[in-house]
Amino acid sequence: MSETPPPVRLVVLYGGQSAEHDVSRVSAAHVLRAVDTTRYQVDPVAITPEGRWLRSDATVAALAAGAHALPDALDAAGTQLSPQDTVAPVEAHQQVVVLPLLHGPRGEDGTVQGLLELADVAYVGSGVLGSAANMDKVMSKVVAGAAGLPQVRHLAVRDVEVDDALVARVGRELGWPVFVKPANMGSSVGVTRADGPEALHEALALATSFDEWAVVEEAVTAREIEVGVLGNESPRASVPGEIVPTHDFYDYEDKYLDGAAEMVIPADLPPAVAEEARELALRAFKALRCDGLARVDFFYEEGGRGLLFNEINTMPGFTPFSMFPSLWAATGVPYAQLIDELVALALARHAHRAPHRRQR
Fold first, then answer.
1. Strand 53-55 vs strand 40-47: parallel, antiparallel, or unpaired?
2. Residues 190-209 pLDDT 10s
3. What DSSP assignment string belongs to 235-257?
């Protein structure tokens, strides 16, 4: 009689070294509240802003007491681990899945994914290429353009290229106002609107303090439409949702501090537009080498160019009230089931890629 295999070891990796460290800690707390601890051996591991890997002893104790004992945001303290120990099975024949709830650079950009590939461990989300290409807004737009996805007009700018000639080019080719974004950052960190040359200099100084590359985009009068995608080689799309910001645009404060931005799910769109948003989301997901999950964001220019691809978030905010889980709840996949499906997708992707990792 065969032995019952040990439960999957689910390593919930959170924190990280980006400006989105605190956002990640909140997402992780909600995931741990929802995880079925009878199905998984859950191991919460924090990455500190300095880059240390720590098993969160306080979180382990809270989990033992019950989900009600978990804080609103997990701490980033505990017993130091090596990355190798973090992803190793603790029982024979045990499957390990890492859920990297890391937002932004050094977490969502292919760096941690590369480490997990070298460790030969299953993990939730896109691989090295998909993570890196989508984290970098410059490369994401290059690939999206090659795939024929409609986009707003934009320019890529490197920090060493910022001068009066560049500012004049922005005014000539994009007009005013424009939006300026760091190429490798999420949660609208470092994003500002510039109404003229002086403001553009200031906006570029801020954006390039986060990354050496920035994107300057034309401003559009448009609605912000988002679609969740779930799957590997045969992905499916959620109903579209809409963000209704209270600020000039959907900035960090509107997302996380003021809490006033409204999510409308499903978005009030003509059926044909809603279906087009889902189709474009799947095209973008495949073209930009995504796996597991992603949130695909669009601008919807009513009476104009219609849906315009904005960006893909390969590890979107993951509280039950965040857009991605809310989209799937409205599509018939509740929060706890969503986590289970992501773990299954991670294991399936790892198994599918196994033959390609063998030496020839």
1. antiparallel
2. 899 999 999 999 999 999 99
3. -EE---EEEE-SSSS--HIIIII
